[in-house]
Amino acid sequence: MLRWAPFPFVRITLSFIAGILVYLISGKEFSYSTELLAFFVGVYIILFILSRKLKSASITSLTGIVGILCFVAGGVWVTHFKTESHRADHLLHLKTSPAYYMGVVDSYVLQKPGYQTTVLQLEQVQIKGQWQPVRGKVQLSVPHDSGSEYELRYGDRLLVKGAPQKVEAALNPQQFNYAAYLAGKNIYHRQFLQSEQYLRLNNDPGNPILYYSILMRRNVDQLLRKNMPEQREYGISTALLLGVTDELDNSIKAAYTNSGTIHVLSVSGLHVGLIYGVLMVFLGKFNRTPRQRFYAALIVIAFLWLYAFITGLSPSVLRSVVMFTMVTLALAIGRRSNIYNTLAIAAFVLLLHNPYFVLDVGFQLSFLAVLGIVYLQPKLYTLVEVNNRVSKFFWALFTVSMAAQLATSPLSLYYFHQFPVYFWLANLVVVPLSTVALYSGLAAIGFGWIPVIGWLLYQLHFWVIWCMNEINFYLISLPNALLDGISITAFQTWLLYALFFMLILFFALKKLPYLAIAASILFVLAAQQILETIAQRKQQFFTIYSMRGQTALSFVQGQQAILLADSITLQDKQDYTFNIQPHLWHLGINKPEPQFLHTSTQHQSINHAFLPDSNSLYAWQNKTLLLLHKPLKVQTISPLPVDYLILANNVRINPEELQQFRYKHLILDSSNSLWYREKTKQQLDTLGLVYYDVAEQGAFVE
Length: 702
Description:
Strand content: 15-25%
Number of strands: 22
Distance between the termini: 53 Å
């Protein structure tokens, strides 16, 4: 039987999370959240008084249940309070687009190639010459002058010309929903600005602590930029020490992701734990009396928050610092800290500050990894008896890596669709090296002003990072280093965690019913996979994807596909990975067969022919597609029957000329520019012709 008594904060936090999820799943329509919370709190107070007077076990149990419901209602209320979109003065509810708007830079300024991006907290908008207050956030992207490190700073008040655009939802099947991601940060609009579209009025940081934290992070960043001779190693250094990933190129990100060591590049529990460990070693002799423990705790907490301050108070660091602060306080007052309660308190405090953290992938993976390490690592460690000190170190490191991977694998598969095969080997080598890199980097920042010592520390820091990079590049070059194309649903993810939990209960409690439940879950997963495979082998359809300025089509037959696209799409791996790959993986297709558009397609299932004007006619599975990308130069005697008539690349054609074709669907693909689509749609509307705009309506699937 499970005993919940030792874990009060776990119950509270889980209830609070349940309330947050209820609010989010319900569509953010809990306008009566205050009344709901007041009702449950009132009922709890009445039941609490009755339980004290009547001493009834049933009333006491009911009081506990209502107490849990109070925290569920509290989660609903806090999330509603932190959600700006339901307020009447929010930017979403404006009926007229503003000509100008004013706001304050409310976030970090991220460096991107050629531009910078940040978040503007709106204050006012100008509509029809009148200024009015407004709520909301806008993601701004501004051109980046290479001669200036930062055009914008936290706290800058800007006057912006133009109206922000609402962030579009995902336009392709299974594509990452960037609009939902930003909505989780209370951002629903964005705007790409030219330098003449905005004016800096003044600087008025709303949070002085965050302002000086960002300023300190920039100063440390300048130190690293000055002392790290290579861009690649400098990028790793800023990620490792400051949590800034702006300077990482795609090859580095891919290497660390595919080897399973990307976590060392995001400042999180690993880094804070290493700093905590060193501090505890140095202060271990000062833990004998309550007074010594108190001062030691103050020193540890001060250093932890100083590190958080240097990193810009990023959410990932705050998670870990809050958790280790709780552990330190518990040790200082002489209480044995229950790590599960400590984790729960840390999660509760963070979610109370921002309930939308529950949607953050880093938040989810971070807590799951720590839970896995706390519970599983000691059990895995005892499976093998190790005698010498070196073997113990590497075995402990291996079991930590294995425990974290087991705990996070289902969620990682759901989000990233891949599994790094050599994660265990990579972590055995890279984690110790990253530890040396972290310590040497922090020491270099602290003592870099001493001429010889500073130079030596930066050299050590540089070469350790160089070794980390080379090892990762080597590991991902090994055969079958990465299993990708794994696509699981949210329901299957929950089932995997349920299976995992039942197996843990079985081994911990030695109760056969838990094994029976685990077997049942495994059967459901297997049955789902079999049914999904059968359905995938029968599937047959084609898709026209929405990719700005490009044309891309996939023809799916069973678990094989042909990708028909222009040379830019086929050569741009990043564009393909973001727009097309998730859809094909979802269909059970790992690698499609690429074919260039407007060339002689050599595939038995697709027939291709050129019209005299070089436009392309495709025939596939008794369906015909005519792709018009050049002006028509021929006149047909009678209307040419085609199933799908596709207008691409701003083709110069009068809508009246379309009468030469007898088509079922008229499609404007995403290679057409905005002005062309608007002009053509207006002409088609005038003629009463039905059309489908891929760039606006999303991918065409049939």
